[in-house]
Specification:
The chain is α+β, with helices and mostly antiparallel strands and about 325 residues long. It has one domain. The chain is built from twelve helices and seven strands. The termini are close together.
Length: about 325
């Protein structure tokens, strides 16, 4: 198929993204189980950050390579002819790359739309709080029989809590639960959930890195628990009892919205309560050399990438690879 200059560039970008992303995705997929096990030896906040960055690494690295190298090499070295033939292999890779992006964007857009509708429905049943919230701002109290307590939204996250939860919890339990939700908001967990949704998969409808996402969700909850407790045994007991009380109310499972609930999964209730009642041990010191190595490797790779990007002659080899891909 013969394509004009800029359509050929678009096709090459999509094809290059699919090929490079597949390689990076498979590399991360091969170490996903090990990464989840390693995360289990770290403190929850560190574990959540590790799994988050590993999950978005294939897309981030691929976008950096495509934008930083493929596009400049094509624009600088490809002659602006009327048209050039593009092979079916390149077209197939481009179609798959575009499909993965389209599905990811639609998935994220649907979640955002559902979140906006959810907030709109919440506003329709909002009532005056008549309660002070010392640890959080912008709270929406719902006059609903169902139990809900969650930070909802991305740009301006709001705490949504039902009157049933407020009436059930004591002041200490409410304060501990509010601190938990504020920890979610401070760490921008809803934005991270959205990034997971809009991150393309290796193939359309293939979710091969779900274990990392589930691990991140678990450790982000633990990290919020630890931030809420902040070393206080009294707050730990208050948060643990708040979790049990809210669970007895029949807390709604988190819908497919962009939100961070007080308790996303009742199956984790026993584990979270057990953590709050006893301090776990984490093997952090053996991981310090690994963390230092990762930082040095990132600095070296970034320096090499910047050097190549600022040296146009280095793009010749990339342009040759693109020429082979387009055939």
């Amino acid at each position: 198929m013969v394509l004009p200059y800029y359509l050929r560039l678009l096709c090459l970008c999509a094809a290059a993204f699919f090929v490079v992303h597949a390689v990076a995705w498979l590399a991360i997929r091969s170490v996903s189980a090990t990464s989840v096990r390693v995360a289990g030896t770290m403190r929850p906040g560190q574990a959540a950050r590790l799994l988050f960055w590993l999950r978005i690494a294939p897309t981030s690295v691929t976008l950096f390579l495509v934008i930083g190298f493929c596009i400049p090499s094509y624009v600088w070295l490809e002659p602006d002819w009327a048209g050039e033939r593009v092979g079916w292999l390149c077209l197939t890779a481009a179609a798959l790359g575009a499909a993965t992006w389209l599905i990811a964007v639609v998935r994220g857009s649907v979640a955002l739309t559902r979140t906006r509708l959810y907030l709109r429905n919440c506003r329709s049943s909002e009532q005056p709080a008549n309660v002070e919230f010392p640890y959080v701002d912008d709270v929406m109290v719902l006059d609903k029989g169902v139990a809900v307590m969650a930070v909802t939204g991305v740009v301006r996250p709001r705490l949504v809590v039902s009157r049933a939860v407020l009436d059930t919890l004591s002041e200490e339990q409410k304060n501990a639960a509010f601190r938990h939700e504020e920890a979610h908001r401070s760490s921008h967990d809803n934005l991270k959930r959205l990034l997971f949704l809009v991150t393309p998969d290796v193939l359309p409808f293939a979710r091969g890195l779900s274990p990392m996402e589930r691990g991140w969700a678990k450790y982000s909850e633990w990290a919020a628990d630890d931030a809420a407790v902040d070393g206080s045994q009294d707050r730990a007991l208050s948060l643990a009892s708040a979790l049990v009380k809210v669970a007895k109310l029949g807390l709604q499972p988190a819908p497919r919205h962009v939100l961070s609930s007080l308790m996303d999964d009742k199956r984790e209730l026993e584990v979270r309560v057990d953590r709050l009642l006893r301090e776990p041990a984490y093997a952090e010191r053996p991981l310090q050399p690994l963390a230092a190595f990762a930082v040095r490797a990132a600095v070296i790779l970034g320096s090499v990438g910047a050097t190549l990007l600022l040296w146009p002659e280095s793009l010749g080899g990339i342009h040759q690879l693109l020429e082979r891909l387009v055939q």
